[in-house]
Amino acid sequence: MIDMTSVPNGWVCLYPQVSSLIEDNRSTSQTVTMSLDNRGLAYADGFFTTMGVIDGLILWSDYHYQRLVSHAEALQLNINSEELLAVLQLYAQQLEQGMLKLVVTRAAQDVRGYGYAPSANGSDCEIWLKATTMKVSTALQLSLPNGNLVPTQPYASAICLASQIACLPPPLAGLKSLNRLDNVLASGELQRIKAEPLASKLASTLGEGLLRDMRGQWVEGTMSNVFYQLAEAPLSESKTASSVHKDNENYLTTGQWYTPSMAQSGVAGVMRQVIIDALSTTQYPVIIRSLRDENLPKLTQLFFCNALRGIMPMSSLTLLSGDVVDFESA
Asked: Across the strands, what pairs with 125?
């Protein structure tokens, strides 16, 4: 275990000390200053991932490892993912309960401007980590078909936002890159709605906003992925058997769930993949399906999810028109 009296409160730079942290069983606890020439700051040249820690263990560590591998390959970064994950696990043991945020940026280059010098192993990196002590809520949990437990938040309401997210070419689509300005602006819109002086009762229960991309397809939340169920007719005309009461412990395994594709926009989140994999061998595997304007009045269930908060079920969705789709059973 890492020998340090406390987990560093600020950011620490792990690279190039990753190997020595394992071999010498020690940690560089001093805070390191990031250069203003850092390519992550200058060009958003890198990616990040946020990991929950409970009882000294990283939640869904295998999936975060897959993100390290896939993102390093997509961005042509030289990362020893196995060594890096081992260091993160040491920090998690010391943290015990909280959050680890990892930021990976391409190292400074001799090439001027945006360019970088390619190599067989990819570009060298700067790897930054911040450990934060916080409570990761586990009071409510849902059991996946494989027996794993997922944190579940109380029911909240959602709203369709006017903000849009970018469509990106491969291999950038689906990545948790450092360029998140579209999500920043969308989150700002959501906060403004919550803070409106004449905010309705809806604003007090508002948990997340639904975002569409530049094609007009609804893709994800401001900080999460989305899953949904559909009726054959709008809810104003019929309530279907696929409506699931909010106390139903079989919430995830009752009815057909859909989730939008991340092939052109959005972030392919860790919890999204956890749920897709867990339901892959059940009667109703998750189907990748576009969510369009005409589908919204036919929604019967909707939840958002991310690796820290788990599942965030919604009781209603307010459309851009102001109409409200209610997901509660009749």
From this structure: 106
- Do residues 69 and 81 lie in contact, with contact meaning Cβ atoms separated by under 8 Å? yes
The string of pLDDT tens digits covering residues 115-156 is 998 787 789 999 999 999 988 766 688 889 888 889 999 999
pLDDT for 50-79, tens place per residue? 999 999 999 999 999 999 999 999 999 999
> Which percentage of the chain shows pLDDT scores above 70?
83
- Which run of H or E residues covers position 83? helix 81-95
Q: Cβ(311)–Cβ(303) under 8 Å?
A: yes
Please say whether the beta carbons of 120 and 54 come within 8 A. no
- Name the residue with tokens 């392919």: 268
Q: Shortest CA distance to 129 belongs to which of 42, 22, 25, 17?
A: 17
CA angle 180/182/183 to nearest 5° reads 65
- For residue 150, the one-letter residue type is V
Instruction: Please give the Cα distance from 326 to 265 (Å, whole number).
Output: 27
Cβ 269 vs Cβ 47: under 8 Å: no
CB 325 within 8 A of CB 157: no
